[in-house]
Write a structure and sequence with these properties.
single chain; alpha+beta; Arc Repressor Mutant, subunit A; 4-stranded mixed beta sheet; 8 strands; DNA binding; transcription; RNA_pol_sigma_54; RpoN_core-bd_sf
Length: 449
């Protein structure tokens, strides 16, 4: 091959920094975008942000594509004091399990050493209510004998709530049953010796060995279902997360309107000093720096505007496809793919995927993630497709209405859906959807009383 220098023109798709920014902003939720704007304001001295205030005066607008307004210092100070969110007043009053136990230990008639051991044990009770750690670990910290350790554990297990400080599920259930009055001795015996068989519905063997009927085992099962396997679950745990909708769908007669949650975003105000520097068209290093930062600011604003418009168009397309859902609920959900919405909104499928990620919509039927409205479907005898959500509702309704002494098998459910709804669905598909609905198999749903 001959060596040499040659010129060749080619076309390449280059991801500019601005394009990357637009793509990344599209994936952010409204809360994440709020945080992104605040972080950008720390890096760009031209940006000054303020929270939305519907009672404030209309902002002045200029030829530049940035909205700002200048106000007297006392007005700005008043706005800062008026910034209010109802979530700012929400206090985190969650009481941890160890704190609740220690409050009770202080009222117990025990000596100082036992109090010290009890507080140590209480600090080792996890959020689920179970006692963590071993005697050896406690003995390495405190000079306590095995007998005293077991005595202190017993003291701790007498505290509220029932079942607290257990070291296994069996012990937790027994502690709760032992507080029942009158005592349910059969239930205690089943939990003590036949808990695994009870959980796997191997009741015949347990009934035979205990010389009781299956109806008696059913009553024990129902009693145990009322117990709490995690007595510490009502305390502490993770801090609850507040989901804020990014878009609203409101019904107005037979039509639906899509509204974006713009009030969740802060208003961006151009810094007064830099604004004068740009308007006077001065030269120098400071002016060039201001122009560069202003360019970044305007591109970010354009990206935010494009993000809002994309969310609106994608949501409107979803509403158009799922109009029956917004009217009548989940049972009317239709099959929908990213491609369907992409074609309706005139965007790429990847754009629809990014737009629906971490975005929530407030509908007349509740709060849903935008991705919730996408699902596969199955054809009925007429060639029409039915969403998997609707099929799950059919399975749920059939199980609710079944005769509990003779529950429907997966094959029977499949046959009923085909004969009543005209949808051909396999037994394996029924089993799959049943598992997703957390519905037990027919053998485990069977009742004897």
């Amino acid at each position: 091959m001959e060596m040499g220098l040659y010129q060749q023109q080619t076309m390449k798709l280059v991801m500019t920094q601005e394009l990357r920014q637009a793509i990344s902003l599209l994936q952010l939720s409204t809360l994440d975008l709020h945080q992104y704007i605040e972080e950008a304001a720390l890096e760009n001295p031209l940006m000054e942000i303020e929270e939305q205030d519907t009672s404030s005066m209309h902002a002045e607008s200029y030829d530049m594509p940035v909205m700002w307004h200048d106000e007297p210092p006392e007005m700005q100070e008043r706005e800062e004091h008026n910034e209010y969110s109802p979530f700012d007043q929400a206090k985190d009053d969650r009481l941890r399990v160890p704190d609740y136990l220690i409050q009770q230990i202080r009222l117990m008639p025990v000596d100082k050493f036992e109090t010290k051991v009890l507080k140590h044990l209480a600090s080792n009770v996890g959020d689920n209510g179970y006692l963590e750690g071993t005697y050896e670990e406690t003995a390495a910290v405190l000079p306590v004998s095995w007998e005293k350790y077991e005595e202190c554990v017993a003291h701790l297990q007498r505290l509220e709530p029932a079942g607290i400080a257990a070291r296994s599920l069996k012990e937790c259930l027994l502690l709760q049953l032992q507080r029942k009055f009158p005592r349910y001795e059969l239930a205690e015996q089943v939990v003590s010796d036949w808990l695994e068989e009870l959980g796997t519905h191997r009741w015949k063997e347990a009934a035979k060995r205990l010389n009781v009927s299956l109806a008696d085992i059913q009553k024990v099962y129902d009693e145990i279902q009322q117990l709490d396997p995690y007595p510490g679950s009502s305390f502490g745990g993770e801090k609850p997360v507040c989901l804020v909708p990014d878009v609203y769908v409101e019904r107005q007669g037979d039509t639906f309107s899509v509204e974006l949650r713009d009030e969740g975003l802060p208003k961006i105000r151009l810094n007064r000093q830099y604004r004068h520097l740009l308007e006077n068209k001065e030269e120098g290093e400071a002016a060039e720096y201001a122009k560069q930062k202003y360019k970044q600011l305007t591109w970010m604003l354009k990206s935010i505007d494009q993000r809002q418009q994309t969310i609106r168009s994608v949501t409107e397309a979803i509403v158009e496809f799922q109009r029956d859902f917004f009217k009548d609920g989940t049972s009317q959900m239709k099959p929908l793919t990213l491609k369907d919405v992409a074609e309706a909104a005139d965007v790429h499928e990847s754009t629809v995927s990014r737009t629906t990620t971490n975005k929530y919509v407030q509908t007349p039927h509740g709060l849903f993630e935008l991705k919730y409205f996408f699902s596969a479907g199955m054809n009925n005898h007429d060639g029409e497709q039915t969403s998997t959500f609707a099929i799950k509702d059919m399975i749920h309704d059939l199980v609710d209405k079944e005769e509990k002494q003779r529950p429907l098998s997966d094959q029977k459910i499949s046959t009923l859906i085909e004969t009543e709804r005209g949808i051909s669905i396999s037994r394996r598909a029924v089993a799959k959807y049943r598992d997703e609905l957390n519905i037990l198999s027919s053998s485990k749903r069977k009742r004897y009383v």
